[in-house]
Design brief:
The protein is α/β, with parallel strands linked by helices. The chain contains six helices and seven strands, in the order βαβαβαβαβαββα. The chain binds 5-O-phosphono-beta-D-ribofuranosylamine (GRF). 5-O-phosphono-beta-D-ribofuranosylamine binds next to helix 1, strand 5 and helix 6.
């Protein structure tokens, strides 16, 4: 059984976390170890509790890195879902090649510090792109720098706003993240 923990941010809705959890519930080979959030009132954490998932709160602070490693001790793979910070080095090293993140654009374009939420979709529109999508990539100690593992594409329509594009990309994210996780886990086994 592969144990996966999902780390969410303080403010995220948790829709990717819930989509992952729904797929994992149907998968006999994967289980969720923890959904981890920095605050007890993180919307994504409350959504996880409502869905009956195991949760843990690890507050940002001086001992964040050690506390997070302790909670993750029996976790095999880590998925970031709306976690906006850099992971501490001890986590990145110990789970090297087993940490994924999803980004709402086609990396390497439109990634990096400050490229999150509506900023990403506004930048895609401003650049006149005709295509966008999502990228599942490995996590390193830099923002959005790890190797891209899987992408899914959708059109950018002439009358798109950042909101309409975000909605289209989000639906793609929900369908893609589990697929990528599953393929990454299977790839490592072979
Ligand atoms: C998603 O757009 C994801 O690509 C990005 O953060 C957002 C999280 O949304 N990393 P949600 O909390 O999963 O709904």
């Amino acid at each position: 059984m592969t144990r996966v923990s999902i780390i969410v941010g303080a403010k995220g809705r948790g829709s990717n976390m819930l989509a992952l959890a729904r797929h994992i519930a149907q998968d006999p080979d994967i289980e969720i170890a923890y959904v981890i959030a920095p605050k007890p009132d993180s919307p994504a954490l409350l959504a996880a509790q409502e869905a009956g998932l195991p949760t843990a709160v690890v507050p940002y602070g001086e001992t964040f890195a050690e506390d997070l490693e302790r909670v993750l001790d029996d976790t095999d793979w880590i998925c970031l879902a709306g976690f906006m910070r850099l992971l501490p080095g001890n986590i990145v090293h110990r789970w090297k090649g087993r940490i994924l993140n999803i980004h709402p654009a086609l990396l390497p374009k439109f990634g990096g510090k400050g490229m999150y939420g509506h900023h990403v979709h506004e930048a895609v529109l401003a650049a006149g792109e005709t295509e966008s999508g999502c990228s599942v990539h490995f996590v390193t100690e830099e923002y959005d720098e790890g190797a891209t593992f899987m992408q899914a594409r959708c059109p950018v329509l002439p009358d798109d706003t950042a909101e309409s594009l975000a909605t289209r990309v989000l639906a793609l994210e929900h369908a893609t993240y589990y697929k990528a996780l599953k393929a990454a886990i299977d790839g490592q086994r072979t």
